[in-house]
Amino acid sequence: MTASAADGKTNWDSLCAKCHGTDGKGQTKMGQKLGVKDFTDAKFQAELKDDAAAKTIKEGMKDKDGKTLMKPFDTLSDEEIKALVQYVRSLKT
Prior knowledge:
Blueprint: H1 5-20, H2 29-34, H3 42-47, H4 50-59, E1 61-62, E2 68-70, H5 78-90
Antiparallel strand pairs: 1-2
Helix pairs in contact: 1-5, 4-5
């Protein structure tokens, strides 16, 4: 079974929006505290590679001191992660 774009949005809304915002701009209280990137920025999107985005979703992200910036979402299937990456791509303005 493949995950659809709707699954990507559903997972975004429940797992990602708290920090990244429903619009992907990262202008939430937590997003600003952590310095998350603006996913609507075309320059950021151009530099972001799908495999790197998928790896970050699956494995999480730490700062240079080892502090967790984003927890891993390792319970998502590869298809769900792929759908999330495609959803992130759709946020570009």
